[in-house]
Amino acid sequence: MIVLRTPGGLSLRLRPRAVGVGATCALLTMVLGVVAIGHGDYPMSAADVLRTLTGGGTPAEDFIVTELRLPRLVTAMAVGAALALAGAVFQSLVRNPLGSPDMLGFTQGAATGALVVVVLGGSSTMLAGAALAGGLATGVLVYALTWRRGVHGYRLILVGIGLAAILTGVNGWLLTRAPLMDAARAVLWLTGSLDGRGWSQALPLLVALTVLVPLVLLANGPALRLAEMGDDTASALGVRVPRLRLLVLGAAVLLVSLAAAATGPVSFLALTAPHLARRLTRAPGPNLLPSAALGALLLVAADLIAQRAVPGHQLPVGVVTGVLGGGYLVWLLATERRAGRL
Amino acid sequence: MSRLSGTAMTLAYERRTIARDLTVAVPDRSFTVVIGPNACGKSTLLRALSRLLRPAAGSVLLDGEDIHRRPARAVARTLGLLPQSSVAPEGIGVAELVARGRYPHQGLLRQWSREDERVVAESMAATGVADLADRPVDELSGGQRQRVWLAMALAQQTPLLLLDEPTTYLDIAHQIEILDLCARLHEEQGRTLVAVLHDLNHAARYATHLIAMRDGRVVAAGPPGEVVTAARVEEVFGLPCRVIEDPETGTPLVVPARRRVPTARPGPGAEGAAPDRGATPAGP
């Protein structure tokens, strides 16, 4: 633990390990980002990429980097960070490592919104808007069903799993109602893909991250850590637990919904990133910033794999995160069981 | 004088009303202990006094002001609570857990002052867990763990400290250890303590002020010597007993009456033939 103090009485407390994990993730994301921008039908060297990014590229390079490849990279980073943050918040709120938007129905709700647009027909902007609305509506529904008189994490999980099951059924029905071509497009969306994502997809999420991360999540980080010790203990220390839950749940649902609107539901990232971050930092609590940095890194890496794994063919990034995330979960269950913790 | 009091409180969970028109006052600088049979509302009273439960009617006053109207952090700098159960986050160290008690004194840009550091060290020393500072809480015994939680509540530096059954789940030696510690905090640091205790003899030995409850009402309140009488114990707990002087401390000591020898020996396998203890009158 490092403590920084100013003569004016201000003080900051940092965990070297957590700072290290965050900084390493950020650095690796930059490196992979340069690699990712250089990759494609028009390959560019790292030097070319850096030259273009700093404003010294030819018009053609400029177009390829700033209009095609950079927005995709930025979208990947933003979606990765948003999903990881939301996952960290949910896991902390329900005091359960399985608390993630995939399990609690928010992802399915966003999908329902998007599928309604697919069935009724509509532009991709409408699809993104409907995904956002679907995710938020699920958030309101979960809140209404669980929060009436002080909520228990357990109840949130059960209600979430129930809603997820119902919405999965609804989504299946909507898919069967869609014309074949649209259904195929919808399935691609449901897998989660970064293909062809531009600034218009990245921007809303970037704005939300800029506002929500410092004002809601970081400001409430210490209180969120205390709430993990139980409602009574946290209240006794001066945390207004119901208000805290409403605020951070709202922020997390908004981030998940915006992420789904940008890329479709990218599976398992919200579950694995905070988990992995906690193992790396060895710090109790939600580990918000290290989780966000790791989430961005993982999604950028997954997208790079998705573009290269099968020569001549791009995989949707959701396939990669699903395979890797699921694999990680199985590995984790196996090792935890061997260690006698499960 | 009393900084903490509840007036004409109706205490209820959803549809179940626990207490009506309940009025209590915690004398300043007292070690107040609330006693009573199971489900008499003593823990509910503590929840109300610590503003975890908002009274359906009536009010709790802290320093003359409605406790629910004051900012949560300001209350947390005046009134601390050791709840019945808390969850230690996985892998957290002792010093780190105790440091969390400083939350109401901290801010986003005032995360760890020298004062915080000093108070945490003092709290760990006062509860005898300084040697465990770097150990993970998961690895501690029940008695050690309870002392760590108590250290966290102490680090909050509140003049008033509420304890909900602090000795539950501990063996007799650790129960006495925790109560001795509480008595020392009360005497040496001048804190006002309010504890819910199950053991009547512990209550009589350590309290300076007793509140006896039954069915959501206060049956008696005052110094243990006045409150703990054989008639009162039978009224509150339905337990026939004798009250003698504790040979160690001179405080009242409750000795349950001997079970009356049944007039007819119960036949083999006749369970439940023993007389109803609650209905038998007191002994001598």
From TrEMBL, chain A:
<comment type="similarity">
    <text>Belongs to the binding-protein-dependent transport system permease family. FecCD subfamily.</text>
</comment>
<feature type="transmembrane region" description="Helical">
    <location>
        <begin position="73"/>
        <end position="94"/>
    </location>
</feature>
<feature type="transmembrane region" description="Helical">
    <location>
        <begin position="114"/>
        <end position="144"/>
    </location>
</feature>
<dbReference type="InterPro" id="IPR000522">
    <property type="entry name" value="ABC_transptr_permease_BtuC"/>
</dbReference>
<keyword id="KW-0472">Membrane</keyword>
<dbReference type="InterPro" id="IPR037294">
    <property type="entry name" value="ABC_BtuC-like"/>
</dbReference>
<protein>
    <recommendedName>
        <fullName>Iron-enterobactin ABC transporter permease</fullName>
    </recommendedName>
</protein>
<feature type="transmembrane region" description="Helical">
    <location>
        <begin position="198"/>
        <end position="219"/>
    </location>
</feature>
<keyword id="KW-1133">Transmembrane helix</keyword>
<feature type="transmembrane region" description="Helical">
    <location>
        <begin position="246"/>
        <end position="268"/>
    </location>
</feature>
<dbReference type="GO" id="GO:0033214">
    <property type="term" value="P:siderophore-iron import into cell"/>
</dbReference>
<dbReference type="GO" id="GO:0022857">
    <property type="term" value="F:transmembrane transporter activity"/>
</dbReference>
<keyword id="KW-0813">Transport</keyword>
<feature type="transmembrane region" description="Helical">
    <location>
        <begin position="18"/>
        <end position="37"/>
    </location>
</feature>
<dbReference type="Pfam" id="PF01032">
    <property type="entry name" value="FecCD"/>
</dbReference>
<keyword id="KW-0812">Transmembrane</keyword>
<feature type="transmembrane region" description="Helical">
    <location>
        <begin position="156"/>
        <end position="175"/>
    </location>
</feature>
<feature type="transmembrane region" description="Helical">
    <location>
        <begin position="288"/>
        <end position="306"/>
    </location>
</feature>
<dbReference type="GO" id="GO:0005886">
    <property type="term" value="C:plasma membrane"/>
</dbReference>
<keyword id="KW-1003">Cell membrane</keyword>
<feature type="transmembrane region" description="Helical">
    <location>
        <begin position="315"/>
        <end position="334"/>
    </location>
</feature>
